[in-house]
């Protein structure tokens, strides 16, 4: 028999109540197979209640425009210093070429993020460079949705140019950015961040920038880099901050909010040695990622209904499994992905639409192409 307190927590969740942080921690700490099966089943039922049976996907392309970065995050195998072997910085022609290829292959979205390259300026201004990145794509392909620049990149531009966050976000929005990736969140706990990414923005700054984007009408996503040094308490603390951020956006009537939540399990194969040694393994533990995804659905689903696994990090089979643990979206085609792949991920860098559709169909669930903001895209 599973513990009555677990039963009570799951029953309350199914009745539509928000979990408390303490209840969330109790669920994450379960090791009994029967309790874990009950958590999975509850997450799957809530997924059905909140968003139905259809699994969505998006045709998109990643453009990581440079890997030259001034920061040294302990988990990152992507960054290079200028002049290092393997350092790159795409020129305008290459950006256009990749965008054209994306459009030719039916993409509705280009996701653009890069390293924090202090030389990426025009006339001594960082914002001018980023605005030209946007204009280069949007002038050629006005129909494409640009999902671009993390809260960390917003802070970087603001710091270099002496601007406030709202000015930077509004300028990017007006130039044609349609939404902001909720990356650079890692774990929203400053004790974890001191070890993982000491040079990155702190928790309060990440939350402030994302909330400012919502106020200014720019939707965001949300993520968690999990399975390294963080505790279940810190994972739930992260989910609590995201839920609270979304509640603020909805209750205050902001014109935008968080569109989805994505668990990004840590891939350590090529990570810098100190963190790799501390974590003690190279690839994610699927069972941990699935349990966290299920608890995230139970914790966030009333407020953030769309949940996505990372096939890049878990492989397509792992991502498919996550669809019966509370996820309702399988992500995008990506076409090209460098950050996780350079970390040693086994999922690959490009997924054909048919592969995503077949994975979904094998679960006897319907599939549907969507756009960045989860509106249906009618297949051509």
Characterise this structure.
Helix 5 (126-140) links the parallel strand 3 (109-113) and strand 4 (145-148). The longest helix has 20 residues, at 232-251. Helices cover 46% and strands 12% of the residues. A 4-stranded parallel beta sheet has the order 2-3-4-5. The chain has a 3-stranded parallel beta sheet with strand order 9-1-10. Strands 6-7-8 form a 3-stranded parallel beta sheet. It has 380 residues and is α/β, with parallel strands linked by helices.
Give me some keywords for this one.
single chain, 380 residues, alpha/beta, four-stranded parallel sheet, three-stranded parallel sheet, 15 helices, 10 strands, 46% helix, globular
